[in-house]
Amino acid sequence: MKIAILGAGISGMALARFLEQGGVSRDSLHLFEAGSVAGGLCHSKTVDGFTYDVAGGHILFSKDAEAMQWMKDEAGGDDAFVTCDRNTKIRFDDKWVHYPFENGIGDLPKQANFECLKGYVDAWHQRQLTGSPAPKDFASWIRWRFGDGIAEHFMDPYNEKIWKRPLEKITSDWVAGRVPDAPIEDILKAAIGVRTEGYTHQAIFYYPKTGGFQGITDGLAATLGDRVRLNTPVTNVRKKGDRWIVNDEEFDVVVNTISLTYMPDLIEGMPADVAKAMRELEYNGLVTYLIALDRAEHPNLSWIYLPQKSQGPANRVTYMSNYSPGNAPEGKTSFLIEITTPGGQPFPGLDLEEDVIQGLETAGLLKRNEILFTDRSQVNHAYVVFDHEYHRRRDLALGWMTEQGLHPLGRFGRFEYDNSDQCVIKARAKAAEMLPDLLG
Ligand SMILES: Cc1cc2nc3c(=O)[nH]c(=O)nc-3n(C[C@H](O)[C@H](O)[C@H](O)COP(=O)(O)OP(=O)(O)OC[C@H]3O[C@@H](n4cnc5c(N)ncnc54)[C@H](O)[C@@H]3O)c2cc1C
């Protein structure tokens, strides 16, 4: 029995480990990885003693305690992790606003506080009066849920930065469970300065002591050893009877974790409508900058959001050296900056860095003379974009893959907004589904 797993990010490697733990021989597993390192979006980079996560700041947290413990155990156990208290804020002019924004409106200048509160109450009242259902497009959803004030001061500018599209073009499908849903009493209290939490999810998170978030996938890769074929891009997949040929080698089973958008170029014999649907799935890329700082200590923050245009193109800043002492040399600190880019388009040029630094200066986050050096990374696929055609295209793509017996898995293998813990949970479920056939 030969099993090909396409892509050695956390999804592919977790699947391999679950199959092995379920009784499949390690020798049956063959992971194809284009990169020179396994880990995919969990990849981290170390430059001159400063470590950062190349696909933006990553933290380990899961509602599924068993999955989270499994991830820790695969990466050296509890002792290999730092336990961090989450402290996230929004930068608004020269103020720090409690996160989530609606629970922090009391931190705003008085006029903005009033506008946000009035809008929130008006929107709430409107929903009570009319019982209007949640609008489908995200722009209308924001005003329906939060009102005009929060839309104008935070939700619109912040989401325009992240999504790089007019917000009418995306749906509100993805917000459930991701955008907190605060009761009106909490917002009334927040506006008059009584602290309400709003978001207790991830109050504590974990981070590998060394090697950045990649410490987790390094653990998996070390166990899988030579089963992961690095520098081995998949270039061709085709069916031969009830078996599969991957790069001229025969396999019984194929699981794909590579982005669906690449599949039409790799799989032979795909119907034109399926290929079109896959190619047109929308996504965003990401540019990240490590900023190494000659600064001994950071404030006690985990990450912050930058909603305002004057703060430059970055939407989020992670206080990377706060995650683990292993992330920066003694007496130094670092930032990790994220800037999304429209998927499939050329990445911004080198001018971007100057815009980012100017924005951070305006936001009062750094002084230029503190910067030791910067390092830039970019990833093609960072965020799934939930445009109005998302479900139709994805259903067609996944339906065809499944019908062919090509198991789809992973954040872009299934085009889902999954964090690494959900990738692990889905890999565990996929292994459970496959094991009876593989062992029977
Ligand atoms: C900005 C941002 C912040 C995030 N924050 C968190 C967080 O805090 N916590 C968290 O748990 N998760 C977080 N995530 C999500 C997490 O990174 C992903 O869910 C996870 O890494 C996806 O893993 P995957 O294996 O499904 O996909 P990938 O990591 O994309 O793996 C796919 C693999 O396929 C390989 N590949 C591509 N093409 C080919 C080819 N032709 N041949 C062979 N191999 C190929 C790639 O090199 C890659 O290794 C974040 C993601 C982003 C973008």
From TrEMBL:
One of its GO terms (molecular function) is oxidoreductase activity. Transmembrane segments: none annotated. Residues 10-337 form the Amine oxidase domain. It holds the Pfam family Amino_oxidase. InterPro entries: Amino_oxidase, FAD/NAD-bd_sf. Signal peptide: none annotated. SUPFAM superfamilies: FAD/NAD(P)-binding domain. It comes from the Bacteria. Belongs to the carotenoid/retinoid oxidoreductase family. PANTHER family: AMINE OXIDASE DOMAIN-CONTAINING PROTEIN (PTHR43734:SF4), PHYTOENE DESATURASE (PTHR43734). This is Amine oxidase domain-containing protein. It comes from Saltatorellus ferox.
